[in-house]
Amino acid sequence: MTDDKHDGIGGYFRMSVVALGALFWVWFLWQLSADQTRGEIENQYATRDYAERTEESISNFCMTLPDADKTDCIEKAIESRRKEQRNERDLNAQETMARWTWVMGGIAGIGLIVSLIGIGLIYVTFKETRRAADTGREANEIARSSSERQLRAYVGVERIFVKTKAVGQVTVGEVVVKNFGQTPAYNYHLASHLVIWETGGDEHLLNVPSQPNMRTSDLQPSASSLAYPRAPNILTQEILDRLNAGTSVIYLVGRIDYEDTFGNPRVTRFRVRNDNQCKGSETHLCDEGNCST
Hints:
Layout: H1 2-60, H2 67-151, E1 155-164, E2 170-179, E3 185-198, E4 217-219, E5 224-227, E6 230-234, H3 237-245, E7 248-259, E8 265-274, E9 284-285, E10 291-292
Antiparallel strand pairs: 1-2, 2-5, 2-6, 3-4, 3-7, 7-8, 8-9, 8-10
């Protein structure tokens, strides 16, 4: 709205400048034409005046001379007046040429101004066109990104719990992964593991496994996939006591890799814990280690 208002004001200003310039030059040309007309009238009067003055000079001076000198005197008087008339006409012609030189210079100046205005308008048009193109590209990018967000696959953890936690057995977890998006997830694979960690240990040292628990496959929309990460050793009574006392914690850590339907690689990381604050096999998210792209 503001840009349109500024463009309208700028257009009115340019039109006003052009109109005032045109009016000025119409007035100037009218004055020049009037001066030229006055000059022609003055030349006519001057011609008649020269004739009268020549006749007067001949009557007052030449006619008083002897007959032998009259002819020569009359010719000199006529030639003298003609010379004066030519000089005055030359002067008038020079003045007229000077006026027309100003006119031509003014026209050239107007042409230069018009050219500069044209260049400015071309620049403004180019700038506005580029801005419109950039706006269009941004709008297309926003629309494309929005469409991708709506249609892409979203693969994440639906639930995680400790499946087996008994003395003499290997502790096993269960990870249920689901595609919550509207399109398939391609080249999907999950890498996860279960580890028993001492309380107070640095969770950042828990390495995300690099080897997947399953072969690469495609995960359709609303489809689920299961993984069963296992502890490396059999659960002993001592370890179970530490778990119950809260001095040790069971962590389930993993990484989900896939590609969406637009060919973009996606990653989801998760980290949950099962400690003495959880009921049975339940887990809860850790403060860090959970993210997705």
